[in-house]
Amino acid sequence: MDEVDTFTSGRTVDIDLGTAEVITIDLDNLDPNPDDVLDLLKDGQCKDWVWTKLAGEYWRKGYLEGAERIALTAVDCERLCFVLCPKPLIHCAAFQSSGSMASLPPIYYLLANLTIARSRLAPKHILADARTCNLAEQILQPTPLS
Hints:
Elements: E1 5-8, E2 12-16, E3 22-26, H1 35-43, H2 48-60, H3 64-84, H4 105-120
Helix pairs in contact: 2-3, 2-4, 3-4
């Protein structure tokens, strides 16, 4: 058993639950509610790349809340594992690829990009005395009412 988690080319992720059971998650048919996926990730003690891959797929599908929940849960699991681990240099199984909290940067990068994606959707405030990017000069089109 060299790899606990394997990624296959058919847009699926296989998660080994430690017993003889392997759960396959189809990345093209993700449920908007990530609760079941979060339970599988915790139970399967998946590596950090699996958490990041699934959070990224949720984001790609437009499920920003689900992607954020997966990424924040990954950070919480890593912190809890790091704090409770009696030998931090021989890290526990939840994030097997790291010997410290070094596996967190990709997850934090994803969270930062999610924050930027949310800010792009935020309403803009037009300043009367703007020095650059003067939005008052642009003609704002009213949105049609449905």
